Amino acid sequence: MTGAQVVALGGGHGLYASLRALRSVADGITAIVTVADDGGSSGRLREELGIVPPGDLRMALSALCEDTDWGITWRDVLQTRFSSEGPLDGHAVGNLLIAALWSHTGGVVEGLDWVARLLRAQGRVLPLSDEPIVVSARVAGEDGDYLAVGQVAVATARGRVLGLSLEPSNPHVPAATLEAIADADAVVLGPGSWYTSVLTHFLVPDVARALVAASRRSILTLNIAHLDVETEGTDRTDDIAALRALAPGFVPAVVLADSMHGAEHRLVDAVAEWGPRLVVADLCSVGAPDRHDPERLGAEIARAINQLATDGAAASR
Length: 317
Known about the structure:
Oligomer: single chain
CATH class of the largest domain: Alpha Beta
Strand order of the largest sheet: 3-2-1-7-8-9-10
CATH superfamily of the largest domain: CofD-like domains
Helix content: 40-55%
Radius of gyration: 19 Å
Number of strands: 12
Strand content: 15-25%
Shape: globular
Number of domains: 3
Largest sheet: 7 strands, parallel
């Protein structure tokens, strides 16, 4: 679809896959990234400096780098981690650069835009919120229900996630983030860690309202396989049920599922009852049973975007 402006939401490796897929599909890409991470280099910087965790934002910027020696070199530099016996051990160069730019510019969005310029990025990266957030989950464990506090705790929680909450409950969202969702021709949600990278967006009231308003322009990409600890013992039908419980007003236009899940009758019935069009295709990356292949995913997203455009043109006649 020529001229398509696409917004992709998520975090970590799932969003990275979406952005790599979208590079050959959309003329304009905006990534909206969760800011709940509290582990590793990001968690240390967040705690020490009181900043939004930069790691998932760095990953998104790296996915959008210009495909030249310049862009790839700077991408690799940003992704480089120090290995030492001192306090720099484990820190990603890009995390430190982003933190420095935030201090220099005084703004989260402004700092990210400067890194995008450095990478000559094919798109823009924006935060879900410009203040750090803490995601918590009620979990049904073997010894009863308990509260997992923080992204790492939720992502590694043993048991079934019963519900999510956020602190602060109504974080500030940059105007650019809401404008990007409102102006997009298509909104791509998922894949990614379901509770900590995908559903987190619906915990932020302003973003949840924007996503509900963009429902009929939205494409939901389901995860592949069952390797995330936070969704252990559940399936894609359970993922949809969790989304519907959290955001009952959100009904995407399209749901993308890998062929390994497409024959699951529960999933087919759940999507049909929900209302979106279910698209089943071979999306799995060869040799990585839990990862999407960017080219395959991009081709299916392109078809979905074209169909959204066709449907929109027909509706406006």
